[in-house]
C-alpha cells in the first residue's frame, strides 16, 4: 500500500473515532492532538489497532510515535499484554518514556494504574522488576541482553514496537536489532509487530520478513522545499530559484543570517567537529548584533547554565561564549549535560544557529525552519572522507520546518561549483533513498549471537542454529548458506575455547560460555581476559587492568593516538611492559597491529589519568580527548571491568576480583582510591569529594563528627549539600542551626548578585 498525496481521503479520522477507552482518548486530546495525521490514519485503517503486523514508513515528524502509543494502549486494556518499545539510542528511549508517561493516569481493568517502565543500562541483569510494567521502553542492546537473560516477562509481550527500523542497515548496530526482532518472533510468534521507519526503498522486503503489511506515506506536517545553494542563488527541485543577499563571503552563512532575519532558526550540518565549531563561531559574530534585547538576555541565561553544569573546560567555555550570542555547536565530544542544555535551548528558540555533525540527524527531535547541509561529505576517523547516503541526507532534510511555527521548511545543500550543484540535485534531492541491507553475516558480530542462541537455550543443535539464523533478514535477502559457513566456523571457535561442549547431537553451553553470553561481551574478549588470568606479570597495577580491557574488541577505538603522539605512547608502553597482561607486538613486524596496540595503550593512559583525578580540561590538553568521548570510554570501561570481575570470580582469581571491583567505582567516579568513602555519598562527585577530603574529612566517621557550619563554608558545598551529607552519614542537625545557615547563605548570594 503506498500513497503519496494526502488529498484523496474521505472523512478525516479523529481521535474520538478510535475504538479505545475514553480515558485514553482524553489524555491524547489533552496533549493537543485532535485529528489524526495521514500516516496515522492509514496505519489505523490498515489494522494497527486490530493486531495486524505493520511497517509504517513516513518522513521525520509525521507522527509515527502516536500510532505506537495507541497500539500499546489497546494491548494494555484489551489484551492485558505487555509492549516492548525498541529504540536505537538511550536519549531516544528517554524521550519516548516521557511521552508514554502521560498515560500512567489511566486505570486498568483490575483497578490499578497503567505502568510505564524504562530500562537501558546494566547489561548483566534480567531486570525481574520490569515484570510489573505494561510498557517497557529499552534500547536494542538492552533488549538483546534481556533476551539472553531469559527474563520471564518476555513471554507476556504481545506488542513489539521497533522504532527507526531502517537502522538494520547500520554495520555496527543493525545486527543487534535484527537478532532481537528475529528472537522475539521466535519466542512470541503471536505478538503484534509494529515497525516504524524513515522512507526507504525496500520497505516491502522488511515487511515480508516481519510478516507485515506496509504503508509508505510521503506526507509531512510542514511542507518541505529542497534546494541547492551555489553562490547567491538557491535552485529548488521544482525549477524555481531564489537569490540570497550577500553579506559575507560564505553562502551558507548568508542563508543562515537570512533565516534569522526573517524570524526563523537555522540548523547547519557540517562534516567535522572542527567545522561545526568554526561555523558557529563565525555565526555568533554575525548574529550578536541582530539579537533583540530579550533574546540576548535569554541566551545569556543559557550560557550561564552551561558554565554552572559539570566540569568547566575550554570546550564548555567556548560553547558558553557562543550561546551568549545566540549560536552553538553540537557534537559527540560535548558532555551530556551541555548537550541537553543546547538541545532544549534550541527547541525553545533561544539559540538561532545550531551547527551539528551528522550524529544529530539521527532520532533527536530538533526541528528548524532552515536546514543547511554545508558539506555532503563526512569525515570518520579511521575511514577518511566519504559522501553521506541519500537516507542520511533525507534524515537531515527532514528536520526542516517547525510545526506550528513555520509555514514551510527549507533544506539546502551547499555547492562549491556549478557542476557540484548539478551533482547534488541529481544525487540527493532527486534521488531515492538506498535499499536497506542486512549486515549480520560478519564473524565478529555473529560470534556473540551464536553463543547466546545456545547459552540461553534458544537452540541445542547445529540444525536448530541454522533454523534460527535462517529466519533473519539476512537469510531472506541473501542466502542461508552464506551465514551457515560462518556459524560453523564460530562453533568451532566456541568449542576450542571451551564455551560450548558437544554431547551426541546436542550442543550445550559450559558455565564459562553461559556467563560470557550473559555478560554481553564478545567471546574473544572473554578469552583475552581468561588468558590474562593465567599470566604472572611482575607487577599487577591499575594500568594492567585498564590496558587489559582496552585490548578487548569490546572497547571501541573511541580514543586514538595522533601520529605525533606515537613516540610518547610507545615510550610509555616500554616503561610499563612489566605490568601488561597481554603480549606486546613487535613494532617492525606488523605496523598496523602495532599502531592499534598504541591506541589501546592510549585508551588505558586516558582512563588512568581519569582515575588519578586529572581534570577534564587537562585531559583535553594532554590527550586531546573531549568530554563526550571520555564519557563513552568510561561507560564501556565500567561494563568491561564488571565482566573482568565476574570472570575473575568464575576462575577464582582473588586478586583480580578485588582489584577490578575497586576499579569499577573509581572509573565511575573518576577518583583516586583514597576518595572512595567520600564519593559514595549522594551529591558528592570527584570535584567536591576532593575538596571535602582535603579539608580533613576522609571517612564517613569524620563527616559524622563534622561541624555543619564548617561543611557549608567549603567551596562548592553550600547548605543544601551539607545537609544532605549529614543526613546520609547519620549526623544530627539542629533545626535552628540549619535555618540560621540558610539565611546566611541567602544573604551572601543576594549580596553577590547585587554586587
Ligand atoms: N495527529 C497529530 N496532530 C498534531 N500533532 C501531532 C499529531 N501526531 C503527532 N503529533 C506531533 O508531531 C511531532 C512528531 O511526531 P513523532 O515524533 O512521532 O514523529 P516521527 O514520525 O516518529 O518522526 P521521526 O522519524 O523523526 O522519529 C510530535 O511532537 C507529536 O506530538
Ligand atoms: Mg520517531
Chain-wise SSE layout:
Elements: E1 2-3, H1 22-30, H2 38-45, E2 54-57, H3 64-79, E3 82-87, H4 90-101, E4 116-119, E5 135-139, H5 140-148, E6 157-162, H6 174-187, E7 192-197, H7 203-209, E8 213-217, E9 224-230, E10 233-236, E11 241-243, H8 251-261, E12 266-269, H9 273-287, H10 293-308, H11 314-324, E13 327-330, H12 336-347, E14 353-356, E15 370-373, E16 377-380, E17 384-387, H13 390-397, E18 409-415, H14 418-429, H15 443-455, H16 462-469, H17 473-477, H18 480-496, E19 500-503, E20 506-509, H19 511-519, H20 523-533, H21 542-551, H22 566-575, H23 591-611, H24 616-623, H25 627-650, H26 654-669, H27 676-679, H28 686-694, H29 700-704, H30 708-712, H31 718-729, H32 735-754
Parallel strand pairs: 1-8, 2-7, 2-8, 3-5, 3-6, 4-5, 6-7, 9-18, 12-14, 12-15, 13-14, 15-18
Antiparallel strand pairs: 9-10, 10-11, 16-17, 19-20
Residues 33, 35-37, 40, 60-66, 198, 365 line the site of adenosine-5'-triphosphate.
Write out key terms for the chains shown.
eight-stranded parallel β-sheet; disordered N terminus; binds magnesium ion; eight-stranded mixed β-sheet; binds adenosine-5'-triphosphate
What do these coordinates show?
The protein is of the alpha/beta class and 755 residues long. It is built from 32 helices and 20 strands. Strands 1-8-2-7-6-3-5-4 form an 8-stranded parallel beta sheet, sandwiched between helices. It has an 8-stranded mixed beta sheet with strand order 11-10-9-18-15-12-14-13, with helices on both faces. A two-stranded antiparallel ribbon has the order 16-17. A hairpin with a 2-residue loop joins β19 and β20 (506-509). α15 (443-455) packs across α19 (511-519), α21 (542-551) crosses α25 and α31 (718-729) packs antiparallel against α32 (735-754). The longest helix has 24 residues, at 627-650. It is globular, with a radius of gyration of 28 Å. The model is unreliable at 1-8 (pLDDT under 50). The structure holds adenosine-5'-triphosphate and magnesium ion (MG). Residues 33, 35-37, 40, 60-66, 198, 365 line the site of adenosine-5'-triphosphate.
Amino acid at each position: 500500500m503506498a500513497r503519496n498525496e494526502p488529498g484523496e481521503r474521505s472523512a478525516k479520522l479523529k481521535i474520538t473515532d478510535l475504538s479505545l477507552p475514553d480515558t485514553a482518548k482524553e489524555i491524547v486530546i489533552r496533549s493537543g492532538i485532535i485529528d489524526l495525521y495521514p500516516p496515522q490514519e492509514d496505519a489505523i485503517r490498515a489494522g494497527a489497532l486490530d493486531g495486524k503486523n505493520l511497517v509504517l514508513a513516513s518522513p521525520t515528524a509525521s507522527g509515527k510515535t502516536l500510532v505506537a502509543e495507541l497500539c500499546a494502549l489497546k494491548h494494555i486494556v484489551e489484551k492485558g499484554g505487555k509492549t516492548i518499545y525498541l529504540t536505537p539510542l538511550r536519549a531516544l528511549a528517554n524521550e519516548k518514556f516521557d511521552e508514554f508517561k502521560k498515560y500512567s493516569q489511566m486505570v486498568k481493568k483490575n483497578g490499578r494504574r497503567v505502568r510505564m517502565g524504562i530500562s537501558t543500562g546494566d547489561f548483566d541483569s534480567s531486570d525481574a522488576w520490569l515484570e510489573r510494567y505494561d510498557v517497557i521502553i529499552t534500547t536494542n542492546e538492552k533488549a538483546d541482553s534481556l533476551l539472553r537473560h531469559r527474563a520471564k516477562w518476555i513471554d507476556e509481550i504481545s506488542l513489539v514496537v521497533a522504532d527507526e527500523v531502517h537502522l538494520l542497515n547500520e554495520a555496527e548496530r543493525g545486527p543487534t536489532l535484527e537478532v532481537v526482532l528475529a528472537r522475539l518472533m521466535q519466542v512470541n510468534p503471536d505478538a503484534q509487530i509494529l515497525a516504524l521507519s524513515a522512507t526507504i526503498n525496500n520497505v516491502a522486503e522488511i515487511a515480508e520478513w516481519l510478516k507485515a503489511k506496509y504503508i509508505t506515506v510521503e506526507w509531512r506536517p510542514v511542507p518541505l522545499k529542497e534546494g541547492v545553494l551555489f553562490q547567491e542563488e538557491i535552485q529548488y527541485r521544482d525549477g524555481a530559484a531564489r537569490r540570497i543577499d550577500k553579506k559575507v563571503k560564505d553562502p551558507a552563512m548568508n542563508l543562515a543570517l537570512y533565516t534569522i532575519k526573517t524570524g526563523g532558526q537555522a540548523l547547519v550540518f557540517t562534516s567535522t567537529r572542527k567545522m561545526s565549531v568554526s561555523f558557529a563561531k563565525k555565526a555568533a559574530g554575525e548574529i550578536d548584533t541582530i539579537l533583540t534585547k530579550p533574546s540576548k538576555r535569554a541566551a545569556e541565561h543559557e550560557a550561564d547554565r552551561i558554565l554552572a553544569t559539570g566540569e568547566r573546560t575550554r570546550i564548555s567555555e567556548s560553547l558558553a561564549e557562543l550561546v551568549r550570542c545566540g549560536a552553538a555547536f553540537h557534537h559527540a565530544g560535548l558532555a551530556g549535560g551541555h548537550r541537553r542544555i543546547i538541545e532544549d535551548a534550541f527547541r525553545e528558540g533561544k539559540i538561532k544557529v545550531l551547527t551539528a555533525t551528522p550524529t544529530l540527524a539521527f532520532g533527536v527531535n530538533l526541528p528548524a525552519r532552515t536546514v543547511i547541509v554545508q558539506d555532503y561529505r563526512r569525515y570518520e576517523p579511521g575511514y577518511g572522507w566519504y559522501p553521506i547516503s541519500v537516507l542520511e541526507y533525507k534524515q537531515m532534510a527532514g528536520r526542516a520546518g517547525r510545526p506550528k511555527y513555520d509555514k514551510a521548511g527549507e533544506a539546502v545543500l551547499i555547492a562549491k561549483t556549478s557542476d557540484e550543484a548539478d551533482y547534488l540535485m541529481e544525487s540527493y534531492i532527486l534521488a531515492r533513498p538506498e535499499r536497506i541491507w542486512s549486515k549480520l553475516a560478519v564473524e565478529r558480530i555473529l560470534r556473540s549471537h551464536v553463543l547466546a542462541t545456545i547459552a540461553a537455550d534458544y537452540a541445542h543443535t547445529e540444525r536448530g542454529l541454522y533454523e534460527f539464523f535462517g529466519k533473519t533478514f539476512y537469510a531472506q535477502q541473501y542466502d542461508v548458506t552464506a551465514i551457515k559457513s560462518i556459524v560453523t566456523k564460530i562453533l568451532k571457535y566456541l568449542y576450542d575455547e571451551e564455551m560450548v561442549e558437544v554431547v551426541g547431537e546436542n550442543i550445550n553451553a559450559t558455565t564459562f560460555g553461559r556467563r560470557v553470553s550473559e555478560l554481553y561481551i564478545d567471546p574473544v574478549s572473554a578469552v583475552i581476559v581468561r588468558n590474562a588470568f593465567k599470566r604472572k606479570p611482575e607487577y599487577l597495577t591499575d594500568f594492567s587492568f585498564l590496558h587489559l580491557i582496552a585490548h578487548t574488541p569490546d572497547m571501541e577505538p573511541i580514543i586514538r593516538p595522533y601520529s605525533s603522539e606515537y613516540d610518547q605512547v610507545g615510550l610509555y608502553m616500554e616503561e610499563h611492559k612489566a605490568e601488561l597482561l597481554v603480549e606486546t607486538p613487535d613494532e617492525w613486524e606488523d605496523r598496523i597491529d602495532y599502531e592499534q596496540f598504541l591506541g589501546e595503550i592510549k585508551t588505558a593512559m586516558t582512563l588512568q589519568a581519569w582515575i588519578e583525578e586529572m581534570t577534564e580540561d587537562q585531559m583535553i590538553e594532554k590527550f586531546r580527548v573531549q568530554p563526550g568521548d571520555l564519557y563513552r570510554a568510561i561507560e564501556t570501561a565500567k561494563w568491561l571491568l564488571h565482566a573482568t570481575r565476574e570472570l575473575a570470580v568464575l576462575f577464582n582469581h582473588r586478586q583480580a576480583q578485588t582489584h577490578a571491583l575497586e576499579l569499577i567505582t573509581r572509573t565511575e567516579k573518576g577518583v583516586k582510591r583514597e576518595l572512595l568513602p567520600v564519593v559514595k555519598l549522594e551529591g558528592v562527585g570527584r570535584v567536591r569529594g576532593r575538596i571535602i577530603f582535603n579539608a580533613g574529612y576522609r571517612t564517613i566517621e569524620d563527616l559524622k563528627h563534622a561541624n555543619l557550619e564548617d561543611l557549608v563554608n567549603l567551596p562548592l558545598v553550600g547548605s543544601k549539600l551539607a545537609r544532605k551529607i549529614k543526613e546520609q552519614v547519620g549526623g544530627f542537625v539542629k533545626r535552628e542551626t540549619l535555618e540560621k545557615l540558610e539565611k546566611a547563605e541567602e544573604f551572601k548570594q543576594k549580596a553577590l548578585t547585587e554586587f
